[in-house]
Design goal:
With 153 residues, this protein is mainly α. It is 45% helix and 5% strand. Strands 1-2 form a two-stranded antiparallel sheet.
Length: 153
């Protein structure tokens, strides 16, 4: 993991198209503000041997895939009827994401985003994204069959 890690290079890809997309994403990431600012920060604040610095990057979207959240946050904020954000049983991503965007536009990122606390964990490996683990967005039906048959064995 991390900027000098091998996790991205050693990922198994079902097609050359997927491999090219992953390599392109990692290359693009290395020149983005997040990566360059992290490198500057690390020069001034080196991490001890055997450790790696992670970053929480604010996102203006609520992702319901694997995440850590205090249940009180859902009960007392997301589903609280007086906030009128999401009714119980409602689709949180669909309802909450536009509210986060409007709040950040109105109050600025720090204040408008802060009450929502939605972040992506960035290990600075170049794989800075969210997506479905089954490759829903880019695998063909045949590729999915192959992938899932490997998992069962």
């Amino acid at each position: 993991w991390g900027p000098n890690g091998h996790s991205v290079k050693s990922m198994e890809c079902t097609t050359t198209k997927v491999r090219k997309n992953i390599d392109s994403l990692a290359q693009t990431y290395s020149g983005c503000v997040q990566a360059t600012e992290q490198q500057k920060w690390l020069q001034e604040n080196p991490t001890p041997e055997g450790f790696h610095q992670l970053t929480l990057t604010p996102t203006l979207f609520w992702y319901d895939n694997t995440h850590i959240c205090d249940t009180a946050f859902y009960r007392d904020f997301v589903f609280d009827p007086k906030n009128k954000m999401v009714v119980k049983g409602g689709f949180v991503e669909e309802k909450l994401s536009p509210v986060i965007v409007k709040s950040a536009e109105r109050l600025g990122l720090a204040q408008g985003h802060g009450k929502f606390g939605s972040y992506i964990l960035d290990d600075h490996s170049g794989m800075f994204f969210t997506g479905h683990l089954d490759g829903g967005a880019y695998l063909t039906a045949e590729d999915k069959k192959k992938l899932f048959s490997k998992k069962k064995t």
